[in-house]
Amino acid sequence: MIKIILTTTLLLVLSPLGFSQNFDKVKLDNYLNTLEQNNKFMGSVAVSKNGEIIYTKAIGYADIENRIKATENTKYRIGSISKSFTAVLVLKAAEDMKLDLNQTIDKWFPVIVNADRITVKHLLSHRSGIHNFTNNKDYLSWNTQLKTEAEMLEIIVEGGSVFTPDSKAEYSNSNYVLLSYILEKVFEKSYSELLNEVIVKPIGLVHTYVFGKIDSSKNECKSYSFVGAWNVEAETHFTVPLGAGAILSTPSDLTKFSDALFSGKLLKPESLAIMKTVKDGYGMGVFKIPFYSSVGYGHTGGIDGFSSVFSCFPDDNISYALISNGTNFNNNDISIAVLSAVYGKTFEVPVFTSYNLTSGDLDKYLGVYASKQIPLKIIVTKDRNTLKAQATGQPVFALEATDKDKFKLNQVGAKFEFNPSEETMILFQGGGQIKFMKE
């Protein structure tokens, strides 16, 4: 299925691994510069060791329209990494006996289905069964609009329940929006104020806060999607995701947050242990991100055209963060390259070759494709000499020609092979293949 999935696993290979003193920063610079030169990635990365930044680099533009280049201090929307901050706020409130993790949410939201069975802990670990509102078909028609708590609650209530509370785990942004409201009710302060008072100021973050409308003059960057060229994305209003995804930051600030969190500067050891306890793939605001034999904890994020990841490898005292405001590449491969450089593992600078096609060459591929294997249709169109594909309920993506009748979509590791004479298309992704027929 064509879908932007921010990978939660970087690479898992069971072999010894330790921090390398042979950190090839020149090669890593070359790797990232190559991505920039080929319109594959715009964004920033940072790595810290023992609490000190050992590498940081920004490439691309913060604002293409005004030709503003990104710098190390450019601020990006971090999407669901915000959940890690929210989880810290909730667990800190529990430490201070302001909240009980086992309290059911009917105290605050009696109108939610199963509210008398759903606890604060269930929200934290995605075990509530509450429908994920960002899966709504009409989500992209209203996500840019200001929403009050009452309006968001109505949307969440209408979504209902998708499974019995605590019977399993399933990712839902609704959980963390509700946690944001609970925090605001308990402390009688805005989420933004709590973030600043409990996390930002105590550990000295300088570029982290709840976002508003993007302001390039404040070093806040826009986000873009690549469809033959970089096209600016719409802006989600902060009132929609709030503690589920409304924070803006930099990779350097994220590594500082990561170092503080996993060194015990934000939470007591017992609370941190609860946060890191993974069940059915989820901890509380974090999940495991393994790299070879090292086990990291962190989170990924995606909002509008932004994508992000941060992870801490406590045993090695290494933290890593990447935030992108435009990608035409698989960001997981970038993470692997950065960490490979840090740990002294082999990685290769990509080589990009193009297979040039005219607009007329693309006509034989155009159409609607359906498969008997999955209930998904893919509409193939073109924009001048660029082939585009759109799967049911998903954005339009530009495909890159690699050979005769062959195309790829780097962001999701997908390849497409057409047979115009038979009017078929085969999608290769994740080790599998799905055959589509033109309708």
TrEMBL record:
Signal peptide boundaries: 1-20
Alphabetized UniProt keyword annotations: Signal
Domain Beta-lactamase-related: 44-333
Coiled coil (UniProt feature): none
InterPro entries: AmpC-like (IPR050491), Beta-lactam-related (IPR001466), Beta-lactam/transpept-like (IPR012338)
Presence of the UniProt keyword Signal in the record: yes
Residues spanning the membrane: none
Cross-referenced PANTHER family: D-ALANYL-D-ALANINE CARBOXYPEPTIDASE (PTHR46825:SF7), D-ALANYL-D-ALANINE-CARBOXYPEPTIDASE/ENDOPEPTIDASE AMPH (PTHR46825)
Protein name: Beta-lactamase family protein
Organism (species): Aestuariibaculum suncheonense
